[in-house]
Amino acid sequence: MVRFKSRYLLCEVCVSNHSDLRLLDDQSVFSAVRTAVSRAHGDYGAALTNVSFSVKYLNAHTGVVFLRCRKSHYRILWSALSFINSLKNRGQCVPCFFNCLYVGGTIRTCQKFLIRYNTRQLHRMLPQCRSEEERLEVRRAVLSCSINSFGNEEEEDDEDEEHKE
Amino acid sequence: MAAFADLNVANTNDKKKLQSVIETAAHLGYSTVAINHVVEVQPKKQEIGKPSCVSELFDNFPVVQGKSKPIKVLNRLTLVLSDPSHFRQTADFKFFDIVAIYPKTEKLFHAACMSFDVDIICVAATEKQPFHFKRPPVFGAIERGVFFEISYAAAIKDSTMRRYTISNAINLMEICKGKNVIVSSGAEKPLELRGPYDIANLGLLFGLSEGDAKAAVSTNCRAVLLHGETRKTALGIIHTMKKSQPKEKQEDKEAPASKKAKLDAI
């Protein structure tokens, strides 16, 4: 069977102060990646991003982004991601960097990884929280990753893992 | 999972900045970080300052993402030299875990590769390499276990620097064929760091093969750390520790020797 194979890059956007994270937007990430690829790889890179590059999912609370591109060109896109210095959003410039966590062939595999990664993050962050409200907030922010757009199964899985802890 | 290391974190006097850089490195997954003290050696004054104690930085070192151990922080010295006669091994070297050298001339590069007792030779990242690499010194360095370092912070900041970094890196790769290379950040701010897998991908841009690029961030860095450790020991066999019991001492005796044998075999 012939079909177009794609690669999904699961990235985390890291900023120095958390309040800037809420300004994240599909459009700003899209344009930032496009300019970075055209600066690093010239016209060839710009043409590649025209073909089938898109931002599939974005979570402003934790800074998780899913990028999709063709299987044959994902390395070129990935190498240009490291050169991104900042994101522009409606005139404001947010300094940040992209940290690529996982490359998967389908959204499902990326999500499975994201669930495991989030539980590990919870293990790291909860001991540092001092009050019960902080804990609830942290849990909510991290759990909100596997949400609605992709179906309810993942959400239940995540909650079950939570209860086991 | 391999242990990633970032062997070049610029030393600043601002303690909070250094702390935030190390925290970001732990978040990204680096198990070891080395704070780089850069010294321009002049012929008149021969002293090199002592590095600040690592345990003063943190009470609890941040835990590495994906593992349960805290991040390890080491001290590293980089000497910027142009004349081989200026290099003198002083007693200050024992305070640093890794010693690196940044050669400015061809003569010094040759001498550093063949005879100096250093762990790392830095490749220029912010300017055009003033001399060309020749095969004999590079192969001599590879046999001795000395590594070449490319630092990528300049490439991230500026477009012209990017060209210099990539062209110098490709120049090196043509001659050394990807052996004995490490890639590290020269980060001064936490935003200049990048994750280890991203750096392995950058290695592809520099001309490394996939396996070499991943090794440049993990196994080669570990080899540099061991090379630096053996400088503190006598011929890599005896390692002294304060308040050590005889049983512990024997364990230390065995470990460096087998690792040194591994380095020699390469």
Architecture blueprint of SSEs:
The complex is a heterodimer of chains A (165) and B (266).
Chain A: E1 6-15, H1 26-52, E2 54-59, E3 64-70, H2 74-81, E4 86-89, E5 92-104, H3 107-125, H4 132-143, H5 153-164
Antiparallel strand pairs in A: 1-3, 1-5, 2-3, 4-5
Helix pairs in contact in A: 1-2, 3-4, 3-5
Chain B: E1 4-10, H1 15-28, E2 30-40, E3 72-81, E4 98-103, H2 106-114, E5 120-122, H3 135-144, E6 147-151, H4 153-157, H5 159-176, E7 181-184, H6 196-205, H7 210-217, H8 219-232, H9 246-265
Parallel strand pairs in B: 1-2, 2-3, 3-4, 4-5, 5-6, 6-7
Can you put this structure into words, describing what you see?
The complex is a heterodimer of chains A (165) and B (266). By secondary structure, chain A is α+β, with helices and mostly antiparallel strands. Chain A has two domains: 100 residues, Ribonuclease P, Pop5 subunit (Alpha-Beta Plaits), CATH 3.30.70; 52 residues, no CATH class. In chain A, 47% of the residues lie in helices and 24% in strands. Chain A has five helices and five strands, in the order E-H-E-E-H-E-E-H-H-H. In chain A, helix 1 runs antiparallel to helix 2 and helix 3 packs antiparallel against helix 4. Chain A is globular. Chain A starts with 5 loop residues before the first strand and ends with a helix. Chain B has 266 residues and is of the alpha/beta class. Chain B contains nine helices and seven strands. About 3% of the residues of chain B have low confidence. At the A-B interface, helix 2 and strand 5 of A face helix 1, helix 4 and helix 6 of B.
